[in-house]
Amino acid sequence: MSDHQSQPWHGVIVATSLQFTPEGEVDLAAYRDNVAWLAEQGLDGVAPNGSLGEYQTLSWEERDSVVRTAREAAPEGFTVMPGVGAYSGRESRRHAQVAKDLGCDAVMALPPNAYRADERAILEHFELIASVGLPVTAYNNPIDTKVDLTPEILAKLHSEGLIVGVKEFSGDVRRCYEIAELAPGLDLMIGTDDTVLEVALAGAVGWVAGYPQVFPQATKELFRLSVARDVESALPLYRQLHPVLRWDSKTEFIQAIKLGQDMIGRNGGGCRPPRQPLTAEQEKVVREATQALIDAGVN
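User: That's the sequence. What structure does it adopt?
Assistant: Structure tokens below.
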């Protein structure tokens, strides 16, 4: 484990994919096995029920069982930070309460999903989630949610004591400097696998990450070098990994990462609708990029 224990949301927290049976039911045994393996690899924690975990396709009962399974598989000191994304703040608060009841360390919260919320709605949403009493890391994903958690809004949420960190997924690294100016105490977390070095240089202390479940050792080393600002050592590794890391910012990121899991002998598997399998052309690109790293001994 790294020294992330100062705060449970520091370090490399893996946004876990979720395994399904051939009939499309949640495969908790396969998921438990993957969480345990990620802990063995020396990563710092998992974020179940995030976008990568296909949370929008899960019932409440399924979401609860995924968090429970992650907690059961997590060894001492291994963070479990569930996503509590939902359309309504009441629903998100309910998921945060379950996370607290199951002994989780923190939660990761999107703004109201798919509703073009103004600042009042965003504040109320995070107030409801924070009222449960767990540390809340905001998740800014304006591409998917229709709500942009701008540096100004993040600073307000932080000053009100509603959030402790932000997973910055906008892809706009310029924001990281503005966030640091407006909210110096707010922890910056890398949100897209293909901006690791840039966001780390801007002061990130954590990475909510997809590709460590395919290349755990290489991505762990990339994070270590990046936050140490050892650009000379980080850059060659970053260049080597970038052909796969950039898939984390594409619509088909779940399918690409699950294919990678299958290719290294872990269970990735298929997705629930509406997600479709990769097209033959997409699969060829992902497979070749992943295989090139495997052949080069990257793990």
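Strands lie at 11-15, 45-47, 79-80, 107-109, 136-140, 165-168, 187-190, 206-209.
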